Amino acid sequence: MSGNPATIHAERQQTRVLFIFGLAFALSIAGCSGVKPPGAQPPSAAETVAPAPTPAPAPSPPSPAIATPSSAAALNPPNPPATPPTTARQSAVKPATPVAKAPETVAKAPFAQPAKKEIAAPDVAKNASPTLDLTSLEQRLKDTKAIGVLTKIALKNQVDDLLGQFRAYYEGKLKTTLADLRRPYDLLVLKVLSLLQDSDPLLASAIVASREAIWGILSDRAKFATI
Amino acid sequence: MNKCVMRHSIAFLTAACFVAPALAADDAAVKKDLFTVITLQGLPCGEVVSVTTRGDNDHVASCKDGNRYHVFLNAQGRVVVEKQ
Question: Which residue in B9, B24, B34 is closest to A150 by CB distance?
Answer without folding.
Answer: B34
